[in-house]
Amino acid sequence: MSHTLFIADLHLCEEEPAITAGFLAFLRREARQVDALYILGDLFEAWIGDDDPNPLHAEIAAALDALRLAGVPCYFIHGNRDFLLGQRFAAASGMRLLPQEQLLNLYGRRILIMHGDTLCTDDEGYQRFRRKVHQRWLQKLFLALPLALRQRIALKMRAGSKQANRSKDVAIMDVNAEAVQAAMSRHQVRYLIHGHTHRPAIHSLTVDGRPAERAVLGAWHSEGSMIKVSADEIRLIAFPF
Ligand code: LP5
Ligand code: MN
Predict the structure, then answer these.
(1) Which residue out of 85, 132, 161, 197 has the highest number of ligand 1 atoms within 8 Å of its CB and is therefore the one to mutate?
(2) Which of 31, 37, 195, 238 is deepest in the core (most CB within 10 A)?
(3) For residue 114, which ligand has an atom nearest its CA?
(4) pLDDT tens digits along 61-82
């Protein structure tokens, strides 16, 4: 039976080889017999430019491209860790880059997909940070810096983020209910799929007086997380690596 898969928040990096192995196995197994694969951001722990010679990136690009050659189209929405992932890596991996919000029409259902960070509007510190680093001129400037300097800046940002998160209330780092409603209403959808919060669940809610569902992907730590959409269901599935 035909279905489409969604994943997010793998945070791939050289320090976590088990997660990389789990993802490579997922691309050879679960992702083979599907209509399409959507990666909803934070595939990588941190992305500082497509020119980064990290061998992990080439390995992942080759594995994704093999999936495409096997006939499975793959789409990518940027996360807050890999928003600088560009056309060069997209071409190498055969992925198509999508805008931050994308409306899908799958098996008769209108589904909105996104990374999820834009829904966390109570986290004002993050939204300020996001506005800054999403300025095109600043990104161009950053990408023109020597790789070693970019690495140092990214490490500083990661450390700053960890530090900031320690003092933030957990509720602040979840989605804001009104932001969810507004996005779903704007796109006239009853289904939303996103990641980012690392709180896997399927929530029931009401949008414009009608029942709706918000499906949240889990992060890949000790197991994988995916959402499977078919004509019958939207199902959240955890699976071992
Ligand atoms: O990522 P995570 O899970 O820790 O927390 C996120 C939010 N944090 C971020 C920051 C990223 O982790 C940093 C990623 C680096 C990417 C590569 C570099 C690209 C540089 C491009 C420059 C143009 O997204 C966190 C949220 C949390 O999710 C939950 O939603 O709360 O937000 C923050 O922590 C933001 C803080 O409130 C402020 C950020 C401090 C950054 C310190 C900057 C130091 C800069 C030094 C530069 C010389
Ligand atoms: Mn994220």
Answers:
(1) 161
(2) 195
(3) 2
(4) 999 999 999 999 999 999 999 9
Structure-token pair, residue 125: 């510190």
Q: Is the dihedral of CA 59, 162, 79, 144 positive or negative?
A: negative
User: 157-203, pLDDT tens digit by residue?
Assistant: 999 999 999 999 888 999 999 999 999 999 999 999 999 999 999 99
Domains and CATH numbers, the chain: 3-239 (3.60.21.10)
What pLDDT score does 1 carry? Answer: 57
Q: What is the pLDDT of residues 87-145, one digit of tens each?
A: 999 999 999 999 999 999 999 999 999 999 999 999 999 999 999 999 999 999 999 99
Sign of CA dihedral 144, 13, 11, 105: positive
User: What distance in angstroms lies between residue 81's CA and the mean position of ligand 2's atoms?
Assistant: 6
Contact (Cβ atoms closer than 8 angstroms) between residue 192 and residue 206:
no
Beta pairing class for 101-106 and 109-114:
antiparallel
Nearest-angstrom CA–CA distance, 137 and 167: 31
Residues in the chain: 241
Q: Considering every ligand atom shown, identify the ligand nearest to the alpha carbon of residue 195 and give its number.
A: 2
